[in-house]
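Our preliminary data section would be incomplete without showing what the modeling component actually yields. Below, a chain of 278 amino acids is followed by its predicted structure, encoded as tokens that our downstream tools consume directly.
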Amino acid sequence: MFLKKNIFAQKISHMKTNHEIDYKILGNELQCVEVELDPNETVMAEPGSFMMMDNGIDMQTIFGDGSTQQNGLLGKLFSAGKRLLTGENLFMTAYTNVGQGKKKVTFAAPYPGKIIPMDLSILGGRITCQKDAFLCAAKGVSIGIEFQKKLGTGLFGGEGFIMEKLEGDGMAFVHSGGHVIEKVLEPGELLKIDTGCIVAFTKDVNYDIQFIGGIKNTLFGGEGVFFATLSGPGKVWIQSLPISRMAAKIVAYGSSGRKEEGGILGGIGGLVNGDNGW
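Predicted structure:
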């Protein structure tokens, strides 16, 4: 069953500037999102995220994000440059239903985790997210950059000076690693979090960093030197397995040899693969 807009969004649909799309999230830990397009509706997606689509959908690679904020070649180049700064591709792919009736196109997340649907019309029109979180969005959603104004936050916040900013009144989809927890922060409520575990937060949430403190905590705690702090009001999305943490574990495992495989089985594996000169 495709998820429709809520009652509030339906009441203001005539005021929207972004395309309105329906969607369905498929899967559990290795998810994909199936987007349903009416005739002439368009969804924008990251290159490499495409999975499958119905006949009658036209695919075009374009500069930037395809939002209405781009005017002429200079605007498109500026938009593409912003995406390059956030670590994304210079190009995006537009999928438009040019046929008759509803058509479907499906996009897959690049690693195990969850796809998070975000209706920007009810989230204040803007969210800030980690640089590689964006997956796809309705045409008209602007994908830009969010500079961290504080020097300390930029240097030690885990995401550098630049994060990604999604603006508009349409649907956007971001992906994360592992399980996702959504928390609503009350005014003044403070949440301390590992810097890599932040997926996204709404525009009124204040993002900063805090020194963990204590020599033993710093040297032997294994949790880094700084917390990220998020203070309300607003909504935040938190991931249990950042891709950087997973990649570090894979590298460590690959460089550790066969010690963890056990004496007998490890020895047999070595003989089969010629590790002992056979």
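The domain at 20-178 is CATH 3.60.160.10 (Double-stranded beta-helix). Helices lie at 7-11, 72-85, 151-156, 215-220, 243-254, 263-273. Preliminary results of this kind motivate Aim 1 of the renewal.
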